[in-house]
Amino acid sequence: MLVACAGDNFTPHGDDDTADAAEEDDDDTDDAERCTAARTVVNVESAGGNPFARRVSVHTDRDCEISGFVTTEGESGFGPSNPSASGPAAFHELWFFGLLPGRAFHVAIHVAGDPEQILAESDFETPAVPAGVPMPDRFESAFPQPDDAPWIAAWVAWYTLTLDAREIWVVIFDRRGRLRFAHRVTGETASMLMVADDGTLVLNDQFNIIGVRPDGTQSVLLRPRVSPPHLFPMHHQIHYATHGPWRAVVLFNELGDGLKCDGVTPTEAAVGDGLAVVDDKGAEIFRWSIFDHLDAFPQSVPVPFSCLENHWAPDTTDWTHGNAAAPVAGENAFLVSLRNLSRVVKIDGETGDIVWQLGRGLDFTWIGDEPDAERWFGFQHDAQSLPGNRVLLFDNAYAFFPDVAPHELWSRALELELDEEAMTARRVFEHRVPVSLILGSADRGENGHTLVSTGSGATAEDVTSDGKVIWKIRYDDVHYALTARFYPPLWNDGGGF
Question: Which homologous superfamily does the CATH classification assign to the domain defined by 3-125?
Answer without folding.
Answer: Immunoglobulins (2.60.40.10)
